[in-house]
Amino acid sequence: MSTPLIQISGLEKAFATKESWLGQWRFHRGKFKKHQDSIHALNGVNLTINQGETLCVVGETGCGKSTLARAIMGLINPSAGEIHYLDQRIDHLSDQQRMLFRRRMQMVFQNPYASLNPRMTVYQTLKEPIIFHNPELSLAQVDQQIDDLLESVGISASSSDRYPHEFSGGQRQRISLARALSVEPDFIVADEPLSALDVSVQAQVLNLMMDKQEERNLSYLFITHDLAVVEHFATRVAVMYLGRICELAPTNTLFNQPKHPYTRALLSAIPRLDSNTAEPIRLIGEVPVPTEQPIGCVFQARCPYANQRCYDESPAMIAQEDTSSVACHAIEEKRL
């Protein structure tokens, strides 16, 4: 097998809470002690992304999807773990050292209304990265490349002198994609790029991304909460809950034979026109507070199949016969 494009091992990230100095003191066993809480966003994430594939990460709000994306791109520093691009570790690199990988790894952000500089025209937005990474190009070559980029994403080249506020949301997201493609990357992280768009525009942007992947053999890490998009777009799917991967499987396998109780609950919530569809699975309990490092299975408080082992021991990802991997004691013990 070829070397994975991105390999993530034991990735963790904790954010210190912004408490006042006085609020950090606790009374414990007759003494005041200083203590600062942390939000544990990632708790030992292991993932591989292969060349030319689309790995979709799904899960409810606050499960750590965007934190994972930003850690991979170097926008935040992980608390522990390693990230490798091909054979080279990149998570510990300085900004100057990481510059070699900026061209290979690009990101498309969630909000097309905030991700483009309102003071720069589309031409200036695209010209900046092209000139930075290709200083040998002449101005005529840069202009031609910008025109080709805009036309390739369905934006008229004659619109390059316009500002972002003169475009619709879907057009802005196309421009964001053009900016990411301007440096000819191998890997693009898309953090919920469709959530601010109308459904019809979502389909246009999604089809555009698929076309570009086929043309350039791009690899995507696609973060979304829309399972309909996942079923249409993904090669493999990773299901996250409270900073951990619960299930990882090829798309068809995940949708036809979901295994983890959380995955089953997620898929049962998809609206269906078929009247024979089973009732949605209603989860009991509340999501645990992320200020404490979870002990045992992160889904224990809401899982109807949890036993004492689930409260004491964190489940490992175990490979299944159908090429999926699941972190669940109930499945390992064949109780589910």
Could you give a quick summary of the protein structure above?
The protein has 11 helices and 14 strands. It has helices at residues 65-72, 95-102, 122-133, 139-152, 169-181, 199-216, 227-233, 251-256, 261-268, 308-312, 329-332; strands at residues 6-16, 25-28, 31-34, 38-49, 54-58, 80-85, 88-89, 105-108, 187-191, 219-223, 236-241, 244-250, 318-319, 325-326. An 8-stranded mixed beta sheet has the order 8-9-10-5-11-12-14-13, with helices on both faces. Strands 4-1-6-7 form a 4-stranded antiparallel beta sheet, with helices on one face. A two-stranded antiparallel ribbon has the order 2-3.
Give me the side-by-side strand order of the main sheet: 8-9-10-5-11-12-14-13
Main sheet specs:
8 strands, mixed
N-to-C order of helices and strands: EEEEEHEEHEHHHEHEHEEHHHEEH
Instruction: Count the DSSP helices.
Output: 11
Structural class: alpha/beta
How much of the sequence lies in strands comes to 15-25%
Low-confidence stretches: none
> Separation of termini?
32 Å
Rounded to an integer, what's the Rg over CA atoms? 22 Å
So what's the overall shape?
A: globular
Strand elements, count:
14
**Helix share bin:** 25-40%
Please state the average pLDDT score: 88
